[in-house]
Amino acid sequence: MIFVRYTASLAIVCSLLSHSALAEPTAAARQHVSLDGTWEIAFDAGNKGRAADWHRDAAFSALVEKQKIPVPSCWEELEKDYEGVAYYRRKFTVPKDWNGKVVRLHFDAVNFFSEVWVNNTAVGTHDGGFTPFEFRVDDLLRLDRENTLVVRVAGPILLQDKRIDGVGKMETPQWRGGITGGIWQSVRLVATDSVYVEDTFIEPKIADDSAALHMQLSNTGDQTTSADVEIVIRSTKTPERIVATLRKKYDLKPGLNQHSETLHIPDATYWSPDDPHLYRAEVRVVSADAVSDKWTTRFGMREFTIRNKQFYLNGKPLYLKATFFEGLYPTGVAYPDSREMAIREIRLAKEAGFNMIRPWRKPPPPMWLDLADELGVLTVGSLVVECMGFPSESARLPGWVENEVSESILRDRNRACVVQWELFNELKQPVLKRLLRPMAILSRQLDPTRLILDESGGWAQGANMYLPYQSEPVKFNDVHFYPGGQVNQSQYDRILLIGKTKEEQRAMGLAGLPMPGKNVQPGLMSYLSELGYASWPDIVGNNAMFRERGNPILPATVTTKNLEKHLGHAFKRTGFDKAFPDLRAYCLEEQRIHGIANKRMIEATRTNPEISGYCIHALTDGDWILGAAILDLWRNPKTLAYEMTKQANQPQIVSVHVIPRNVYAGQEAKVSITGINELRSTQAIVTVHVESLDGKTLSTNTLTKDFQHGISDLYTDLIKTDSMRGSYRVRVDVKDPSGRLITSNQRAFDVFEREQIGRPTGQVSVVETGNTVSAHLKNNGIKTIPFSSDLDLSCPVVIGAISKATPDFRKTVGEVKEFVTRGGYAICLDVAGPSLTWGAPNPEPKPKDDDGSWSWIVPRVLTDSDVDQLPLSGKLYATEGNYISRNHIVTDHPVFDGLPTNELMSGVYENVCANKSICRPNRGQYISGVITYDQHKNMDNSLRHYNGIGDVLWAADVLLVTEGNSDGKILYSTLRIMENLGKDPVADKLLVNMLNQVGQSDADGVHH
C-alpha cells in the first residue's frame, strides 16, 4: 500500500495539489471523479464503532441508525451541536480506462481527526480540520465496479467535558465560529499516469516581469524515466493566446523530483484590486510519447511589501483599508451558503471602500479565494491557530500548529489575493509563544515571497513583520483598539498617539493619555489591525429570513429567535420600551451609533501619519460577535453602519473638529479641519458653514486651498458663542474649481447658557473624599453644608467620590441611607464594586425555552445586583462597548430636562456617557441604561469558542430607588459627571437636574 500524508516534516517534499486547478476542465491526462453528494453517516456518540468494526462495509450496512448527509457540510447541520465520532460511507465507481493510472483520494478538509478505509483496507490518517490531504489508492480500487469508502471522523470537543482518542475539550486548533465537524469540504479522486505533477509553486517577480515555476514531479515507477515538461502561460482574459512557453526534457528518478524554470512574461499586467488580472499556468508532462499529466493553476503578477514604513503594491504605496472576516454563514456554518452569497460579501466590502479582507483564524474555502482572486481584493492568509488562551495546552499542540502552518501555506501560496501570512493572534500561552520564531522560519521556507506577521496584536512581545525574502524580523506596531461607541475627543486623540514619542505627545498636548494597543513602540510602522464598534442587526428581519431559509437547529437560528423574544422581555423589565416600543427601530438607531463611531475612528486613524492602515471589525455578523459587523449574517448592509463606514473609507475625506464638543456660552470653540487625500494634490474650494440644526446659517467662510496628497491642515478658526444657545453644526464642503463636490463632512456642537444649565433652589449637603463636587458647587454660587444625621429632609445630599472610602466615610454613607429612609433624597455620583463580565455560576436551575435551549432570562451567572449594597459595593457591568454594542438609552425623565431623550446616548452625551453600569438591579426605576448581551456564553470563558452569544443583559446608568416606607429616594448614577464638572455643561446640567428632583414627583405620582 502506498499513501501520502501531509505533515510539516514532509512539507518540502510532499506538497499539496493546487486547488484552483481542480475547478478546471479536465484534460485526458488528469481526470477527476467528484465524490461530493449524498453520503451515509452513523453518529458514534459512545465511541464504540472501532471495536465493532464499523469501518467494514458489512458492519456499517448492519447499523440501524444510519442517516443521509450531504458532503460537503458540517455535521451540526444534521445533528444539533454534535461532538464526538461519526462514520461516513460512500459507494462509488471508477472508469474502466483508469486501469494503470495513479489514483489519489483527495479531501479538501475534514474536521478534525480522519481515518480512511477503501474496500475494507486501511489507507491512512490525518490530523487537522481545515487543510487538505490525500492518499494514493489505485491499488485498492475495483475498476468499473462498486467501491466503498469509509471515513471515521473524530470531531473537535468544544462544549462538553470529555475525551475522545486522547483529545479533550478545546485542545485542537479550531476556528471560533462553529464545531464544523465532519467532511465539510469537497472530496474527489484524481487520476494521472505514472509521472505527474505533485505541485508547482509559482514565484512572480515584477522587477523583471518573470515567473519562476518550482515544480515537484513525481515518478511513481521504479526506474528513472525521461519526460518532456512543457510550461504554457496564458492570460485568463485571452486564453487562446500563449503569453510564454518553455519545453524541456528531464530525467526523473523514482520518487519526487524538483526542477525550477523561469519564464519571461512580456508586457505583464499586474494584479491589483483595481485590475485583478490573472494568468494561467499549465504544466504538461509527456512520458513515453503520451501525455501523462496536465496540471494547471491561476496566479497573479504582483508584489506586496513594505518600504519607508508604508505598504507597497506593485511598486506603489497603498494605504490598507481592511475589514475583519470570521466567515460564518446562516446555514453553511463555515462554508458559504452559495457562491452568490460569497460574491455578494466580497463585492459589498469593495463597494464600501475596502481593499483588503482579513479572514480570521480560518483559511477560507478554495471557492471563496477563487472569487477574491477574480474580484480583486487583497486577503490575509489566516491559519487555524486560535488565540487568547486557546487551544488548551497539550503536548500534541506544537505538532498540530506546525501542521496547520505548513498545510495552509502550501495550499494557498499561488493565490494572487493572499499577500501576507498571519501566524498567531493575541498570544497568552507559553507553549504557543515558543513557536513564534520557528513557525515564522518555516513559513519563510515554504514561501519566500510574502510578508509574514508573527502575531497580530503583539501581545506576547510586540509584533514582528518579515519582509519578502527576509528571515530577520522587523519590529512592527500591530494594534488592536476598540474605543467603544462614544468616540469623543479624548478617544480620537488616543489614536493620534500611536507611533509617537513622548516628546511628540507632549508637543501635541496629549501627554498622559493612555496609548492604545500592547507593546507599542514609538517610531515604528504602525497598523491598526482591529478597530470598530457594533450594533444589532435587524433582528426582526433576520428572524423572518431564518424562518424562511434557515436551519432550525443551528446556533444562528436559535440565537436570533431567542434574542428577539428575550429582548422584548428586557425592554419591558427596564421600561425602556417606552423610549423604543419598536425593536426594529431600535436596531436601526444602534446602527446609526455604530456608523458614527466607525466613521470617527477611521478619520482619527487616517489623520495620524504614523499609521499605515486599519482593519475594521467586522465585515459580517455571526456567533459571539453578533452585531460587530457592517453586514448582517444574511449579507444585508446594516444601514448607516455600512454607509458611514463607506464614507470614511473614501480616498478623499475631511475630518472636522469642534473643541470642546459642548460649549459654555461666551466660551470660544476651536474649529479645525484636516484633509486626507490619497489622490494627487489638487486645488480645492473649501467652504465652512456654521449653522443651526434647523438650517439657519450663522457664518460661511470660503477659501481656496491646496488639497494636498497626504494629510494637511485645511482650516482653523474660533467660534464666538456669546449670542448662541442650542444645537449647531460645522459643515464643510470641498469642491474642485469646476464646482464638483469632492467630499463633505460635519460635526455637531451644543452651546449652553447659564440659565439653560440652571441651579438648585436651596442648599446642598455633600459627602465625598476630596472636594470635587463641593468645589464645583461653590464655584457656581451654590451653598453647601455638612451632612449630619438630623439634616433637614428638604436638603439633598450628594455622595461624591468613594474610591478611597475610610471606615468613617462608610459610616457616614450608612447615615445618609438612614436619612433617606426617613424621607430624604440623596444622589450617588460614584458607585463602587467589581466590574463584572463573568463570575461564579449560579447553582439554581434555569427554565427552558420552547426549543429546549436554556433560557437567557435567568442567567446562571448574572444574578441581580442587590441595590442595598450600593454605593459602596455592587455588581457593575462594563458598558463602554467594543466589538459588542453597549448603547445607553435615555428616557424622558426630569433628570434629562433640556437634553435629548428617548434616544441612544451620542453627540451631546459623548463625554458623560457611562462606561460601567449597575448590573440588573433588583429594584428601582431605570432612567438610563443598557440592554445588551454578554460576550461569553453562560459566562463560561471556555465556551466563548462556539455556540452563540451569552445571556441577554440589562443594566442601569441612572437608577431611582425608593428606601423605606416613606418618600425617601436615592438616585444612583454611573454617568461620568464628576470628572466633567466645570468642563462640560452637560455634566453640570445633569447634576442640577438631579438636585432639583427634591420635592418633585415622577410621572407615576411617587413623591421624591
From TrEMBL:
The keyword Signal applies. Residues 195-302 form the Glycoside hydrolase family 2 immunoglobulin-like beta-sandwich domain. It comes from the Bacteria. Residues 1-23 form the signal peptide. Keywords: Glycosidase, Hydrolase, Signal. Residues 305-462 form the Glycoside hydrolase family 2 catalytic domain. It is an enzyme of class 3 (hydrolase). SUPFAM superfamilies: (Trans)glycosidases, beta-Galactosidase/glucuronidase domain, Galactose-binding domain-like. Gene3D superfamilies: Galactose-binding domain-like, Glycosidases, Immunoglobulins. The keyword Hydrolase applies. GO terms for biological process: carbohydrate metabolic process. Its EC number is 3.2.1.31. GO terms for molecular function: beta-glucuronidase activity. Residues 34-189 form the Glycosyl hydrolases family 2 sugar binding domain. Belongs to the glycosyl hydrolase 2 family. This is Beta-glucuronidase. It comes from Novipirellula artificiosorum. The lineage of its organism: Bacteria, Pseudomonadati, Planctomycetota, Planctomycetia, Pirellulales. The gene is uidA_2.
